[in-house]
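Quick one from the shared queue. A colleague (R.T.) flagged Cytosolic fatty-acid binding proteins domain-containing protein as missing a structural entry in our internal table.

Convert sequence to structure tokens.
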Amino acid sequence: MSTDFNGTWNIISNDNFESYMQALDIDFATRKVANLLSPQKIIEQKGDSFIIKTISTFRNYEVQFTVGEEFEENTKGLDNRKCQSLVTWDNNKLVCVQKGEKKDRGWTHWIEGDKLYLELNCENQVCKQVYKKVPPA
Ligand code: 1AG
């Protein structure tokens, strides 16, 4: 039985996001705005099928995938690149490799208690985000 990521999660910390965005060539003005956001993750999981929505007042991003099935990801509204992405389980961690123009790009999600962790990697930068579960209504 794999980890259950379902739910709504609010960001509580965001370390090195600026450098991660620089590694993705995000322009100055966009970075200034993005740095002020408090995004929310809404995750819908059925077994190995996922929809992950990143919601903010500025832009939203949604990705859908099945663990173990490579897909073409278009990072529309973010850095607007195309990647060949593959998500796999590493024990209870969800690990995504985003093959494309940028080296060593990907992310890892895992859960500890009522916290959702996200590490975003690009080139030599790592952004570490922590989200707290919003209790179901
Ligand atoms: C992601 O999460 C990325 C989600 O795939 C967004 C994270 C970083 C944004 C990347 C580049 C910044 C580019 C433009 C900034 C503009 C808006 C930012 C809106 C998002 C707020 C952080 C991994 C996983 C599944 O959860 O998607």
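Residues 7-131 form a domain with the Lipocalin fold (CATH 2.40.128.20).
Strands lie at 7-15, 40-46, 49-55, 61-66, 71-74, 82-90, 93-99, 106-112, 115-122, 125-133.
Added to the table.
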